Amino acid sequence: MAADRMLQFVGHDQSYPDKRSPEERARDFREIAERYAAPDAREQSARCSQCGVPYCSVHCPLHNHIPEWLRLTAEGRLREAYELSNATSTMPEICGRICPQDRLCEGNCVIESAGHGAVTIGSVEKYITDTAWAEGWVEPVRAGPATGQSVGIVGAGPAGLTAAEYLRVVGHEVHVYDRHDRAGGLLTYGIPGFKLEKEVVMRRIERLAESGIHFHAGFEVGRDATLDALRQRHDAVLIATGVYKAREIAVPGKDAEGVVAALDYLIASNRKGFGDAVPAFDDGRLNAEGKHVVVIGGGDTAMDCVRTAIRQGAKSVKCLYRRDRENMPGSQREVANAEEEGVEFVWLAAPERFTADKAVRQVAAQGMRLGAPDASGRRNPEPDPGRSFDLPADMVIKALGFDPEELPHLFGAPDLSVTRWGTLRVDHQTMMTSLPGVFAAGDIVRGASLVVWGIRDGRDVSEQMAKWLKVKAKTEKKAA
């Protein structure tokens, strides 16, 4: 019986795909773990308890059919598992690689709470879709009958690409505009290859281009066309730019040479991986080789930076974070990977100043302690008067998070309404902004968040845009 293949969590221990040794993986930007062999994937999938209420699916932003495709994998019905996985996600193999499963699906797995170790959902998801690509099961995007309407999408990140795919499927002409020379947003330029190899992203984008979606690279709204010009060109517009404005740190020496923004650093590294000419890397400004590196921050971007610096041959890499390990926002798995690779974490510490002659030479750090909880429930860091110290630093990377850019100003659209945080204000039922026919989705609405939420928002906004465009077409037909 099929049921006999499941509920094997007592007989089979949790097992992730083997990671390459820290010494080996610190020498390159390949992903650190291989994918499962077929018997291992089936065995790990069979550990699923097939819950009546699958908390893994409940806590997945996409509400993926996780127990169902685990069962199909355990039964060896891999093509069906892929089709079910692909039914709710436009990028399952990407989510399998970069989602913080320990905070989402796996962190809410029932057998995890029972002490048996969660089902390795992310690794199985990656295995299923990588196999589908290898076997030729990933079908082209099939555009529906032409509607005669066109959509402009500003931003080629997860939300924009997902909306582009769904809107193309219903027959709209789709144009995607992005400031970079390659589509993918942070998938391409923000996330390092050791977490997400770039070929995985590029094959998704090529599949979309083959469907007839038009990509306009190196295109900046406000410079190459105003938002109003795009509105005149298209029947509807989606803003899915993400949030790219780096948060600043208000300490003396913050403008010294060698103090750099995390995204500038990561983009330079990823461009080198593509083989691009990157003068700021080649002359050492955005290259950690031979340097004492201090990264400020405790999120996933900070983890990307410390692990990139290790691979670039830094002399030492330290991560300075004002809270403790238990209260950091980044993935605990990423912290463990970084520690294995030689990163030193300096908990409960914040920079007071960066000392420099011509370039930065030292970080003066203030010890911190955790005080009373704030409105979110997290304990606030406060200075610990009895503790301060200095760290040598030839490069300081600021990884303090991101805020929205001033889009009304940049886009030449003063009537585009924003919240007090600078994110775009939308009607949360229709996902439309203050401008008729202009929608918004992803981080530019919710603030800096996860890739999986960008995919979810792209899926949701495409449905709302399709509804609005149908009404628009009927209204115009009547008027004619």
From TrEMBL:
Keyword annotations from UniProtKB, A to Z: 4Fe-4S, Iron, Iron-sulfur, Metal-binding, Oxidoreductase
Residue intervals of the Dihydroprymidine dehydrogenase domain: 25-136
Source species, domain of life: Bacteria
Q: Indicate whether Iron appears among the record's keywords.
A: yes
* Residue ranges with Basic and acidic residues bias: 15-25
The record places domain FAD/NAD(P)-binding at: 151-453
GO MF term list:
4 iron, 4 sulfur cluster binding; glutamate synthase (NADPH) activity; metal ion binding
Region (Disordered) spans which residues?
A: 1-25
EC number of this enzyme: 1.4.1.13
List the InterPro entries: DPD_II (IPR028261), FAD/NAD-bd_sf (IPR036188), FAD/NAD-binding_dom (IPR023753), GltD-like (IPR006006), Helical_ferredxn (IPR009051)
Annotated PANTHER family: GLUTAMATE SYNTHASE [NADPH] SMALL CHAIN, GLUTAMATE SYNTHASE [NADPH] SMALL CHAIN-RELATED
* Name the record gives this protein: GLTS beta chain
Q: Taxonomic classification, please?
A: Bacteria, Pseudomonadati, Pseudomonadota, Alphaproteobacteria, Sphingomonadales
Gene name as annotated: gltD
